[in-house]
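in:
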């Protein structure tokens, strides 16, 4: 009884996922998947246990913040802080901290042992997100702190602000937004379906049906007879 009710609670939270703005986590992601998200294309449901794992990630963040708020050498300037409002993207950084000399944006990521043990450098997609935080907060240094969910071991990487990379990420999101507004489905990732994003993509089935290159959304929607189900 409880399992079904708890699963339903999580599965219901997935409904009505229409997106109108980009999130920091969209940085560097596949433009076609973002397009489908904005158009609210029916997607493969994420299973309830995976959704619970996302919630578990929030607890890990609290676990990390607890000592940081007590350590004398570190000052937590702000926690759970939204990036300044602007037209294209929204996001909330885990914290801005200071060691008395330098400000850092802190981004905490949790993962299982298998991924954690292989990690010898920060993941590119995490650097992308952190770059945008650094850009919008006008802070030149960030820390990616990785937590092993299975044994609570930690790894940290200091990342410097890279203006060129941040501006390229913002430009890319602006281009995707133009395509969304003009109803042009962006091309598939060049290494589809081998890219890691494709492996976890909720739109893989629909992406397979579409052509490889850019295509008109309105006629594609017509073709796959989804007009009644998609806004
Ligand atoms: S399957 Fe791959 S290429 Fe297609 S939308 Fe998803 S991430 Fe993009």
């Amino acid at each position: 009884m409880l399992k079904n009710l708890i699963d339903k609670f999580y599965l219901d939270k997935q409904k009505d996922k229409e997106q109108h703005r980009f999130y920091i986590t969209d940085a560097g992601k596949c433009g076609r998947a973002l397009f489908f998200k904005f158009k609210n294309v029916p997607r493969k449901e994420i299973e309830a246990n995976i959704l619970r794992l996302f919630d578990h990630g929030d607890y890990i963040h609290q676990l990390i913040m607890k000592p940081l708020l007590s350590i004398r050498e570190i000052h937590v300037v702000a926690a759970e802080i939204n990036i300044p409002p602007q037209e294209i993207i929204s996001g909330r950084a885990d914290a801005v901290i200071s060691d008395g000399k330098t400000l850092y944006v802190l981004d905490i990521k949790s993962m299982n042992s298998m991924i954690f043990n292989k990690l010898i450098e920060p993941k590119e997609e995490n650097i992308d997100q952190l770059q945008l935080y650094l850009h919008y907060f006008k802070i030149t240094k960030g820390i990616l702190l990785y937590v092993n969910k299975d044994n609570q071991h930690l790894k940290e990487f200091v990342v410097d602000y890279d203006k060129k990379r941040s501006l390229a990420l913002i430009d890319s999101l602006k281009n995707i937004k133009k395509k969304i507004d003009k109803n042009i489905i962006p091309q598939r990732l060049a290494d589809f379906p081998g890219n890691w994003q494709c492996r976890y993509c909720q739109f893989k089935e629909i992406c397979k049906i579409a052509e490889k290159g850019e295509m008109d959304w309105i006629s594609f929607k017509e073709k796959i007879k989804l007009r009644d189900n998609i806004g």
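note: The chain has a mean pLDDT of 89.
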